[in-house]
Design brief:
Structural class: alpha/beta
Shape: elongated
Radius of gyration: 24 Å
Strand content: 25-35%
Helix content: 25-40%
Largest sheet: 12 strands, mixed
């Protein structure tokens, strides 16, 4: 089986190394040896250390490599939308099989890749696009096809999980925890894609598409990052027996007419320490799947890094190579359900709201009235001196309210009205609460 490798950075280099080190085992598993036909890179002549590969295999002509007749499988680990989309569509329409780790492309325009695969008759595998080495997508698209999945909740970004875990462990603020993550190599020089939730949103779209047999794109995912999470939020979560995680949540539901829908969202949320995801620390990933027959399933492991991601890539290479030798292809995209994506305002969730209010009679009644007007039920209320008793706050008080489940639009409208009350000095923080607290 002849392979074209697009990209030879952190992941691509590990793919080459594993192909070399495990050549005999891979050949035995597939029934034929794997050979690298070429490696497309941006620049020739770059020092690649002791990478076990013939320098003559490197080229800057990725499209030319993809079009070669002697290429059976195209592996793409470059990332981004273009020119990766053009390369992969060309490969798939020509009947070649494709293995990609490109979560951004799959979330932005996975439909184009699936359609091209259907036209050409090749396989499209992308296990490495979500949660690194964790075997997750294959179980969703194959093992659980006989079941009905109702909800997928996950921690799918290692950088943000490291930051929030550090804030929880040390009491540090976001900026300090981000600085530590950068120093340790968990955060990029520009961490925007991670801390603003773009990376997790792309993965959420892929998970929802597979779980609910519906095409879900990045634009369908409600996205919020962790930059507004404060040390005070983390302390408040601890006081409630919770921790804060950046969650991707994809769930079945129904609209006002009773038609089945899905909601897909990414945002920070408090979860109780009893929840399986609460103990997932450092830069690890974990995904919690709730299925009707199988019940709750947990997938956990390293969600990023060169070697873990390369492991997932090679698992896909073995699968598509076996298919090509047998003259078959895997099941095509399953999007038969074609469910509507519910807007965030209709998603059911709970809020944890911290208010700085005037400390005088009637305040609690006025605040409760706002919740009642928006048909939001209050679960718990905690009131105390401003700043936990700190001096210099005059006649202010802290009021912490946790709601029952309600539509997000009603909860957001409640917070909006609270901001306009004279008795509310400020809305100190608003966090969603998930996980059955």
């Amino acid at each position: 089986m002849r392979l074209a490798l697009l990209g030879c950075g952190t992941v691509g280099s590990e793919v080459v190394r594993l192909l070399h080190e495990q050549a005999a085992d891979l050949a035995a598993r597939i029934g034929a040896p794997l050979e690298i036909a070429g490696i497309a890179v941006r620049r020739l002549g770059r020092d690649r250390g002791d990478l076990p590969v013939d320098p003559a295999l490197f080229t800057t002509d990725a499209l030319g490599l993809v079009k070669r007749d002697d290429v059976d499988v195209v592996i793409e680990v470059v990332g981004g939308i273009e020119p990766a989309r053009s390369w992969l569509v060309e490969a798939l329409r020509a009947g070649k099989s494709v293995v990609t780790a490109n979560k951004a492309l799959l979330a932005e325009d996975g439909a184009a890749l699936h359609d091209a695969a259907a036209d050409g008759g090749g396989d499209l595998y992308y296990e490495a696009s979500v949660a690194g080495a964790i075997p997750l997508l294959r179980p969703l698209r194959e093992s659980l096809h006989g079941d009905r999945i109702n909800r997928v909740t996950g921690i799918v970004n290692g950088t943000t999980n490291f930051i929030l875990s550090a804030m929880d462990a040390t009491g540090a603020g976001f900026a300090e925890a981000l600085e530590e993550a950068t120093e340790l190599g968990y955060a990029e020089a520009d961490p925007t894609a991670d801390v603003e939730g773009f990376d997790a949103a792309a993965k959420a779209a892929i998970l929802a598409s597979l779980a609910f047999h519906t095409r879900v794109g990045a634009a369908d995912v409600h996205r919020e990052g962790i930059t507004e999470v404060t040390a005070a939020d983390v302390a408040s979560a601890k006081a409630m027996g919770c921790t804060i995680k950046l969650l991707c949540i994809a769930a079945r539901g129904a609209d006002a007419a009773g038609r089945e829908t899905v909601s897909v969202r990414v945002h920070p949320a408090m979860i109780p320490l009893s929840h399986p995801l609460a103990s997932v620390g450092d830069a690890f990933n974990a995904v919690f799947v709730e299925a009707e027959a199988a019940g709750p399933l947990m997938f956990y492991g390293r969600g990023a890094g060169g070697a873990p991601t390369a492991s997932a890539v090679l698992g896909d290479v073995v699968a598509v190579s076996r298919n090509r030798l047998a003259g078959v292809r895997s099941a095509s995209e399953s999007a038969y359900a074609d469910l509507a994506v519910r807007p965030m305002g209709e998603a059911l969730t709970r809020y944890h709201i911290s208010l700085d209010v005037a400390d005088r009679p009637g305040v609690l009644e006025a605040v409760a009235g706002v919740f009642a007007r928006h048909d939001v039920s209050i679960a718990t209320v905690r009131q105390g001196p401003a700043g936990g008793g700190a001096a210099g706050r005059g006649d202010d008080a802290d009021l912490v309210i946790v709601t029952h489940v309600a539509p997000d639009a009603a909860l957001a409208a409640t917070v909006g009205e609270l901001r306009g009350l004279d008795i509310v000095r400020s809305v100190a923080s608003v966090l969603r609460v998930e996980g059955g607290l």
